[in-house]
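Hello,

I think I submitted the guanosine-5'-diphosphate job twice by accident. Can you confirm which output corresponds to this input? Input:
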Amino acid sequence: MTAKAPSAPRVAALVGPYLSGKTSLLEGLLHTAGALPRKGSVKEGSTVGDPSPEAKARQMSVELGVATTTYLGDPWTFIDTPGSVEFTQETFHALMVADVAVVVCEPDPNRAVTVGPVLRFLDDHKIPHVLFINKMDLPGVGGRLKETLTALQGVSDRPLVLREIPIRDGDVVSGYVDLVSERAYHYKPGQPSDIIQMPESVLPEEKEARQAMLEHLADTDDHLMEELLEDVVPPKEEVYQAMTKDLQQDLIVEVFFGSAEKDSGLRRLLKALRHEAPEAQTTEQRLGIEPKGDALVQIFKTLHAPHVGKLSIGRVWRGELTDGMTLAGQRLSGVYHLFGGKQEKLTKAIAGDIVALGRLEETRTGQALSPGGPVDLPWVPLVQPVVGLAIHATKSGDEVKLSTALQKLIEEDASYALEQNADTSERILWGQGEIHLKVALDRLKSKFNVEVAADKPQVPYKETIKKAAKEIHGRHKHQTGGHGQFGDVWIHIKPLARGEGIKFVDEIVGGVVPRQFIPAVEAGMRDFCKQGPLGFPVVDLEVTLYFGSYHTVDSNEMSFKAAARIAMNEGMPKANPVLLEPILKVQISVPSEYTSKAQRLITGRRGGQVLGFDAKPGWNGWDVVEGLIPQSEVHDVIIELRSLTMGVGTFTWAFDHLQELEGRDADKVVAARKEALAN
Ligand SMILES: Nc1nc2c(ncn2[C@@H]2O[C@H](COP(=O)(O)OP(=O)(O)O)[C@@H](O)[C@H]2O)c(=O)[nH]1
Ligand SMILES: [Mg+2]
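Support: Only one job matched these inputs. Its output is below.
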């Protein structure tokens, strides 16, 4: 390869399904680049990625990890991302500031479907990306490479183009042939591969793969096309240039392979990135960021770190950042490069850099800042949470501390959400799945020092009535010493249709209940409706006040309010009260081979009903199944859906309507409520 001038700082995000080896690849890349004298391992919890105790405990990345280094004189930042769908938001954020993504895949055609969602995001956002098929050290996988590639092509809009082919020794991949230089290499664990004579046995495959690669490049390059048609061997330089253009414009996806664990094939990958990955300027163009102007940094991650406090991690798109300067009205206190859990203090950062910035207390993830103020830049929307937990501090007196901690937790990861449920009075922490929520509880304890108890949230049941109750009498009369209390009302109660709410009708004639006390009657009735005979908030009924009496001295608002409550208490049980349960409309998105399973997921639940299914717009080979499920049955849908679909299925939900619930299921709910209210 030719010598090249040092580039501006570049950013590569490592993405791909859970367990494909991203964190291991980061370790391998840093080791290969010379930034890490000794490799750590995921199993021992000693990797540069995953520095947090929550990640180590699970041997699983639960947030993005950043490592800045140099490779052959070029500055690079690698961002390791979590692969699990429960942490997708973090991955999207890393991709929004990356120049290039390395999609790490398993060497298994049956798992290609798990790469689909991230490829969808990359294709939609036109983010240049390459594929790295990992774990090629496993026996037998070299022979299945073609099959794996075909399966992966099924989930990619862009053509996948092999950049190298494996050299096999029995069922082990022992090296590779680079299809541009047509040189053959033998892997040497931990060291640069040896150049070897190209084995005769790979020649036919090499010719075929090289031809396929050139044809893909020629699709977007007329000169190359002419050469191919005239059987002219294109000069190497021209091939590199075409490759670079196609990667930078996201027209093709180069495919590399190797072993993160054995450091095989990593130098090939690094060199390709070094020569072909776009710099920040090109990425800014793609994102529509104005190239000229004041310093500009976009925050893609917020952290609360011990000792240093709040850190906002961002990419510098323009200009220079210096410690102590003012950004959008806030004084920068500390500019750092990150290397996993370690920080290195800088005096300044330049365009292209990824840096952690201290004490930007008002700044949130996604915001872009200039000295003059915040700047509007494109950002990804929040993924809707799918599971909730009702939480409270275990120690009394810790509730305020918990509120502060929750605020920080959500600052760090905005795919959590908090709800104070008005019906159940519960504080509900929403998240992307079981593990996501469990990580939240761990963080609250280990990072923010609050112990939290969590339960499945209550279902916000309501109740209403099914028939009218007429001529109900309520009288409140009290004689204590001097002034007494006297209120006396007659009402009719009748059911209304769903959604009509609570109505009050005043039919008093002749002042039998004086004007000034009528609002008190209504208030008493509404007050009663907060908790009906079944123990739940009452909806959809009409109460008509048609008669009553009063006492000139003893009547007051309080007495009429009490009289109304007495009448409601008397009349409601006679009006055939019935439980109403909330029904949610759910949309389940899955690759179409799972569509029937998704339907069964809905119909397999009490009251579950499929409304239909359709192709998912913009998602080749995916369907959306729409259905109705009672809220009480929905809690674990996401868990089952993920286990049915290798983790790729997603679902969204929204409240749809209230529906009557009777029989044994209703009796159980009412009995449980009675017990809860008695405690
Ligand atoms: N055989 C083999 N195993 C690997 C390789 N890379 C990663 N692994 C293993 O795959 C598992 C998941 O790796 P990790 O890097 O945590 O995956 P991530 O979820 O994508 O970050 C770990 O047990 C690794 O040891 C590889 O190249 N070869
Ligand atoms: Mg990982």
